[in-house]
Write a structure and sequence with these properties.
This protein is 40% helix and 11% strand. The protein is of the alpha/beta class and 131 residues long.
Length: 131
């Protein structure tokens, strides 16, 4: 099983490059946005450490142990996995080959998967998959 996180949202107050990305609405609409972001980044830190990457934990403002989950559709998760696979095929062929066997995509622990299509902000998907 492969764990997939939606594209990195970062911290909305400090990460200038992602401040207005539509995916940040998930965090902005959460009852505790700062804690949701902290939980998300804490899990990213844990995964990065497991893979031997360096990640500056001190930049996580509220690294909480748990928080109310955010809903994500299975269509969004599948769409983002396809994007990941396209990138891995070009950048990390060994990881791409390993992921070809993935049958069950696990989301980041912050997300609860529900039935549905990719989000409306995924313009490429909607441009190419309309009836």
């Amino acid at each position: 099983m492969e764990r997939v996180s939606p594209r990195p949202e970062g911290n909305p107050r400090r990460d200038k490059g992602w401040r207005n990305h539509p995916q940040l609405n998930r965090f902005k609409e959460h009852p505790e946005p700062q804690k949701a972001t902290g939980y998300y980044l804490k899990e990213i830190h844990r995964e990065a450490s497991n893979r031997g990457y360096s990640y500056n934990y001190s930049k996580i403002l509220e690294p909480v142990e748990s928080v109310e989950k955010i809903m994500i559709t299975n269509g969004q998760l599948d769409y983002e996995f396809r994007i990941l696979m396209e990138r891995l095929e070009k950048r990390t062929p060994k990881r791409f080959e390993k992921n070809l066997n993935v049958k069950n995509i696990l989301p980041h622990p912050l997300f609860q998967v529900i039935e549905g299509l990719p989000e409306k902000w995924e313009k490429f998907y909607w441009r190419n998959n309309t009836s």
